[in-house]
Amino acid sequence: MSFFRRKRLFSILLGLIILVGLIGFSLRDRDQLSSVEEFFLDAVGWGQQIVLAPVNYTSRLVQNISNLNNLYDENQVLKENLAQYQQMLYEVQELRNENDELMALLDKTESITDYTAIQATVTARSPEQWFKQVTIDKGKQDGVQPDMAVITAQGMIGKVQSASQFSSSILLLNGFDRSNRIAVNVNLTDEDEDARGFILDYNEERDQLVLEFTEYYDEIPEGEHVFSSGLGGIFPKGLEIGTIEEVTTDQYGLTQIAYVSPSANLSDLNHVIVVDRGLPSNNDDDETEEE
Amino acid sequence: MSRVYLPLILLLLLVMQGAMIELIPARVDELGWLIVSHSVFLFLVLFKMFYDLEDTYYALFFAILFGFLIDVVYTNILGVYMFSYAISIYFVHGMRKLLHANFYVASLLAFVAVGLVDFLLYLIYYATDVTQMIMADYLINRMIPTMVVNLMIFLIFYALFKRKLVKWSKERFDEKRSTN
Questions:
Q1: Partner-chain residue, chosen from B20, B74, B77, that has the shortest CB–CB distance to A26
Q2: Beta-carbon contacts of residue A18 (< 8 Å; ≥ 6 apart)
Q3: ipTM of the complex, rounded to two decimals
């Protein structure tokens, strides 16, 4: 009996050692998954694509039915918007042509706004809600690489955290912390230059992103749109992130910060687009967006 | 046959966990509750109670394996689910020696074991800075709702799988005894 007790103590201690070892292994800054992890991710990923397809289909159907209620009102608003878009479309075309001509004049073909889109579908969401993580059905074979930005039609939702061969996991914006900042611009209507800053953190209580400005700006109107600036070297320029809700100073009163509510709905994700920035990015300096 | 079916059921439950959040109504989110379904673990508790004998450790083996799989697939920190599941199944194993395996005991044990698993997860994630939630918030907003919801899932599983597990257990272990 005493031997058994000793063996039990031994196993629990061994378990603890393995636990600490594994946590240490996974908390290291790694850009690639180990092949064991990739294998399991792909195997379960296939299962998810097959088994969860009907589940996701049904839950979306139910949502669609509940959306039918405000169909009429939405339709009215959309019709009004559409009339304005015709005008805008013309302007955009003109501007685009002009831009192309100017770029050709300068012999400049690449820009940080360029990207290629990889269409993907969300297959699963982490049941552990402390990890703001979803799985998509595209992987390295489709050109997805870690740190690529992920967007929906409404705006940016996150970045690729890790990619395996046929599926990858995405870290949502509300799971961002100081190790993955986004360099952003805020469009100031009165001035020529944009306000520059970083998305630093996500405030859980307010459900909003925390934006820290690099300089002090007098007038930052609430409701302005926040776009990625492309200067961080990983995400392309011009991805919409959110709108400014409140401008204050940080807890020491030294820097100006703003709370930004994300434009995309992070809890209801279906079709997403992985953004492959064409230009080479400075991947040498690990995960951090801006050094 | 149980050798094939049991891992398959566990794998199916693991895959299904990815859709669990879709099934939780948005109202719960507004209340600030975090509900985590531990359906793989609940099946392992049933497995331990009604399939394993007193001196076999198949459930423990699967707890380690599938805990590791959950770590790989749904989180990015390895070993946390693996450790918590293994310790809690071992706890169930120890309690089972003392208690009779009937419906009430099984439900109570599942209820307590889910609480234990979730608390271990909280401790490890708190230590590794995945969550900054303080203990009181955790107990009210996550632990209690999670325990209650998982108890309901356990009751469904009990109705679905209990007889099958007992049958498979008899088939497998009685065979072994008669051949020995």
A1: B77
A2: B79, B83
A3: 0.79
